Amino acid sequence: MTDTVSTHPDAATGTRTPAPAPGPAAAGGDALTTRPGRWIDGWDPEDASQWAAAGRAIARRNLHWSIFAEFLGFVVWQLWSIVAVALPAAGFDLSTGEVFWLISIPSLVGATLRIPYSFLVPRFGGRNWTIVSAGLLLLPAIALAVCVANPSTPFGLLLAAAALAGFGGGNFASSMANITYFYPQREKGWALGLNAAGGNLGAAVAQFAVPVVVTIGAGATLNLPLAGWIWVPLIVVAMIGAWRRMDNLSNAKADFASSAAALKEPHLWLLSLLYIGTFGSFIGFASVFPKLIADQFPAFSTFAVGGASVSLAFLGALVGSLARPYGGRLADRFGGARITMCAFAAMGAITLAVVVSVPSAGFWAFLGLFLLLFAAAGVGNGSTYRMVPVVFALRGSGDEAARKRKAAAALGLISAIGAYGGFLIPQALNVSVQATGAYTAAFLGFVVAYAALLVLTALVYVRPLRSHRV
Description:
mainly alpha, Growth Hormone, Chain: A, globular, four-stranded mixed sheet
């Protein structure tokens, strides 16, 4: 049974007022039809009258709760980046390699989960899957709290708990896929940008809040279980908010054919390499930044503020998150390929400066250079993501409609592949320190990689397409 929903002002508050008699959606999009479980039929954001009457308000409400749920996903995804560094001080007997595995395994699992997550919104509904995916965050939060309460917890259990944090990384793909269905093409970029930035900020918030919470009032000890427990109430709020305020769209359909076609496009793999270099660098360095500070400048690992400790590591994720929208905006003006090329040039130069100057320049030079590196990675993150639909429109195979569908599918796949950088960068640093006793070899490897990606961008996407702002 269906109800025809009035699209009058009460729709802006999320309240649906049934019409006097059940019936189909009115022609022209003047009314939307809902079914039990908050399913909406007849959704068409490109219909100007429907969008003005009720569509915009419904989309905004879903976007707000999507951002909150994805924000918590990034929080949980990055918890071990700060907790792992604190474990030795809490009495855990862990090697440097084991700490790096605890830092990097959430990114490995999260990147892998992004692929199936991108197809689950059409299968279960955006509202329904947001409830489930937010609820799954309870597992890594509680597992962390339980495992770090006892210093005798075996490393295998710690690694399993850290792997569960990958649920938070998977949330990005389903959240972005869901919001794509709600917005018209002309507003999709802004909505997806807000959704992505809101999620990315979760990494900074986690790295700021956890050192404060685990030290405040703890005296000479660390109350590490609080690093997990403090997020449980917020996760429950996200679940309740999604249940009461979000919607499922019946016309959101999974496009497996376009995903399969996108996998056959060489540009998907080339752009994935670029995204590993930009977003992968952002999430990889964000994960490992607390560890780098603790190893290189232990006196600056935390700062005492009142009865709590504050780590400046959160600044990296914060700067990178805030820089991402500017990368997209610069790409709109000058072309994504040109901005991405400039980002790789900056990242290579800054990384080389880290290798050359940091041993003698001290902590503040180290922090300043890394913040510049995060800013460059954030700009490149936004510009590379902006390149995808343009490249597929200009160089993908098939007719225009097919290229657009493949571009949409490619965005989800590229976001998944790029997230593997969050695993590769910490592990490269781990191998470097295990083999040479220092991080220099890994950083020089990153310089070479950025140079190679710069050349790839120039040869494939800048020179051949000078007349287009790719």
